[in-house]
User: Fold this.
Amino acid sequence: MASNDDLGQELFRDLCSHDSDNERILQKCSMTVEGPLLYCTIHNSTVLHLACSFRKFELAMSLLDSMDAIRLSLLPDRTNAWGDTVLHNAATTNKGIDFVKRLLRRIPDLLCKRNEHDESCVFYAIRYGKQEMFKFLAHQVDKLCQSNKQYNHLHFFQNKDNTTILHMAILTTQFDVAFTIAERYPELCNLKDKSQISALQMLACTPTAFKSGATLGPVKEFLYSVVPTDEQDTIGDVGIIGRAIKFILSSCCQGNSCFVFPLIDEISKLKKSNQDAVKLAKILIKSDTSWRQTYKPRAEITPVITNTDAHHTQKSVEDDEHIVAISDASEDHTVPVMLDIPLSDIDPVNKSVNQRKKGKRQGILECDEAPVLLAARNGCIEIVEATLDMFPQAVDYLNHDQENMLHVAIKSRNFKILDFIEKKPYLRGLVRAVDRNNNLILHMIGCPPSRGEVSPSSKMKSPVMELSEELLLMERLEALCPNYLINHRNKQKKTARELFAAEKEKLRVEAKEWLKRTAEHCTVVIILIATVAFAAAYTVPGGPDETGFPILVHHPLFIIFAITDVLSLGFALTAVVVFLTILTSPYRLNDFRRSLPQKLWLGFTLLFLSVSMMMVAFAATIILMIHSKERWTKIALYIIAFFPILLFMLSYVPIYTNLLKTFNYWIKKSTKSLLRPTFSSRRLFLKHFRSRACGFEP
Assistant:
């Protein structure tokens, strides 16, 4: 008779086989006293464990039926190296629901078992994203908690790190399941894990869960707007064509079509996930009160515009160490903030403030910010909008650095948050606020992003475009701030412009080098185009006659060739001049705001026009050569010669589009400064027009 080790090795080999013989495995299990509870791996997984892990539930049912009462009594204690029972392994797939039902009928106490991390089988079902299994096990837990009062839901829904199944559902991006959990078990909404992070805070740190955090191209953006979901049966007033597209896409998504479009299915799932995340955020925001635990706002002080009075500044720094969470009513000069915290909570809040500062000094990262501020930091505009719709007072929330949501949004370059707040009436109070380092929102442009947080789109831009957008943002914020705050100095004795110049010096050098390289490369290409265009003017298609006059001069295509060749040469020579002005520029910081980007945009425009005209001239030449029955060797040479230019043009299209966005900003700004008819002038014009129409002289 073989030993248990040899038998376990044979059983493991049989279970790993795709065409395993169930009868043979059952026969081998009957050869040992332990039967299906025999350990087969070095991590103490039994035969029944492996059958569930390998999704062989017919075999698992047969093994369960072959066990007597003594072996069944040992089953709850037969765990692997991680403390997982057979039920834990079975909960990792939806295919094992029938097996789990039979298992719980025979051993009901198995539902209460937890592994070494205090994770139940329900926790495993959420971790592996098995929704059907979770619904069944959650129903069993509800019945058990109703019948046996010694158990509560936290025994099944929370591990020893205080992570709940709601946290786990958000981590695994199962937002529809998370919404069901939050709606069914509201007591889990405000629970925090070991890192003191609530479910809403975790969701606010997941920008990809929302539409605002998705990066979609033009095609995907269009599909996203028209692809229907279960909750969306209409797409608005889109007309007959839009409804027809919606019907076709709906058929494709529901599987009624003969064809499968993976892209449409992907966009449909993404849209459904985004909608579920928004619904989850709204239900979590209803029970969130963390925005009430705000920090004391700084007093509205006279702006510091000189470098004097250093002793007073040092004293103010020391005074900031005693910041409390509630504004003192005895200080008449304090900016009022909308709070709803009882006076009895002041001491505990102050105590928590001191603990947070102590932890921050020790380098401990604690997520003590309210979800609305985390959402503004990470660009989750959906959470910010939903929070301010339910609780408008939350706009005044301040973190431990006394930063409001406008501070953190600008620091992390989340412009959607700025666009949203800019339209609200409470913008005036936010732009005048200063943080504990006496920084305005203007200083946030020069401050490096905290905790490595930065908008992902800024990482993909060239240094010139990044610096140009930073300068345009500075100008935009200066227009929002009152004039008396423009030259305000922070505790480093720097204005916003001075701080920006100091922090962006490295970026300015990178932008300078990038711009020089780009201008030099473009100049080489333009000179090549100009050379070809100049040579083409003297080697006209068809050649000259005895008198030197072009033979095909009266052909319409010859006129097109002549015009486009001259235009190509003119655009190329003008572009050379533009790029030479870029190369000879002093590259001052303010030059990157308007002058250099516009010159670069103009140079690219002339380059593209020159290439386009050259291609038109080339096409006209081809037609003329075919018409005159010239050899195809020259045509092939032309195509090979111009192929690199086409690649160059296509590779610079993204940069050109970014430059075009910057140019559009200046066009909009210029139109605002143009002369406009006043109300009185329009009124006089209408009066004069009506009198002339009625036949009366004014």
About this structure: Residues 299 and 334 are 4 Å apart (CA to CA). The chain has a mean pLDDT of 78. The radius of gyration is 36 Å. DSSP finds 31 helices and no strands in the chain.
